[in-house]
Amino acid sequence: MSSPTDEILLEEPPPAAPPPAPPPDYWKKVRRHRRAQRAYFRKGAVRTTLAILGLLAFGVIAADVWYGLSEDARWLTLGVMLVSGCAMLWRWWWRPASAFGELEAVRDLERGFPKLGQRLRTARDVERAWAYRGDDPLGEALLHDTRTRVAELDIRRLVPWHRLRVPLLACLVVGLGYFAAWNNWPEFQTGVHRLFTPWKGVSYTTVEILHPAATFIDKDAPHLVARISGRPAAEATLFVREEGAAEWKPIKMSRAGDSAHFDTVLAGRKKSLDYYVVAGDGRSPQYHLRCLLTPKIEQVYAELTFQHSGIRSLEFT
After folding, report:
1. Which end of the chain is less packed: N or C, by CB atoms within 10 Å?
2. CATH topology of domain 205-292
3. pLDDT tens track for 221-237
């Protein structure tokens, strides 16, 4: 028979408890905080820049509608807005995001959680020390304690996302202003095109020549009719330059029935000519009108010969 002592010796020892899982690497939170802070810089800079440039562009468009800015002024304004936008993005996004590296993220975490002290920077230096190879008990204890402390932190509150509500609200207000002006202010649409596409020569007044002819006979008087659309114009001026001339001569046109049509008659023209019409800030395309001369006898020559007289011949012109 087996003794109680033998039975005790034959019993299997209880299974050992699994070792505790190591704390997560704190560098993941450091990198996460760095990405979040850079995203904060980006969103804040983009929203603020859009709000400022949108408000500036709105003011320039309104000034152009009321006073009519020249093409050079619009080019200058567009260049200033572009340079200002790049400067604001560099000031509020690219420069702080570039400066917010790994060490700055560590310092920001330590400032946000004062109980950490300088533990993160110390742990960083221990990990990167040349003599440290992972067999230092004191270093291992420091790193383990740092990971444990950082794992308990909620780093999301360090990024002040609530501050982005103000530039977002400003963008919405500017956007609503554009929407209202675009739908209720017809000339605002033209002003937008004039500001952002100054090379197209868009004007508030559009001048169109109705049925422009290519030729006319010198005995006839060409009748030119211009139609005005868009912003009304009080008068229209025809500019004519005859073939061989160097200067353009202005001719004031008369109203033809309503305020949208002007006409004039070019009487006594014997040469081909170029012409265009200006009304308000609008100008029509330049056209060429060719003059067709009527055939006519300019000189007659005759010679008479008399056989029975002393005069041999007579010439007549």
Report:
1. N
2. Immunoglobulin-like (2.60.40)
3. 999 999 999 999 999 99
